Recover the amino acids of this structure.
């Protein structure tokens, strides 16, 4: 079976040169970073900078690694942490990590799933005990994950 399409007489597909492609890619990248910045701004705690909030993701990965190494936690929690860590370490997944801005969206979603379930199963005190970042960053993580019951915690010096 052959599929044919009708085109207007004299119609030619537009030629796209490298500069147009580069401008389009740069515009999409800039808009993506702007949207990410706005989301970080909206999620942050009052008085917290966007740069502090941007450091929450690496701290959350360190938290996942610490929870995975904790032998006192149930296997189901440690299994979720292992899945989240492996998923975040592999560069090719649902949305490849080399895609600017949106390449990390699926990584954040998997980590959020693992941390939310850990707080529900193990409790917020266990999570706070393994947290090495600032209290403001932990509060921002709880707000971003929409978790209740943030315990007061001072990280070790």
């Amino acid at each position: 079976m052959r599929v044919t399409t009708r085109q207007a007489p004299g119609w030619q597909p537009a030629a796209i040169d490298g500069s147009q492609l580069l401008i389009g890619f740069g515009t999409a990248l800039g808009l993506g970073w702007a949207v990410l910045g706005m989301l970080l701004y909206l999620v942050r705690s009052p008085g917290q900078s966007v740069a502090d909030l941007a450091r929450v993701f690496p701290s959350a990965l360190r938290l996942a690694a610490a929870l995975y190494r904790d032998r006192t936690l149930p296997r189901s929690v440690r299994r979720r942490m292992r899945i989240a860590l492996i998923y975040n370490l592999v560069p090719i997944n649902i949305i490849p990590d080399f895609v600017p801005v949106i390449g990390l969206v699926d990584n954040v979603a998997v980590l959020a799933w693992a941390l939310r379930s850990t707080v529900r199963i193990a409790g917020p005190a266990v999570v706070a005990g393994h947290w090495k970042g600032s209290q403001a960053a932990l509060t921002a993580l709880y707000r971003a994950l929409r978790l209740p019951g943030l315990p007061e915690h001072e990280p070790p010096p």
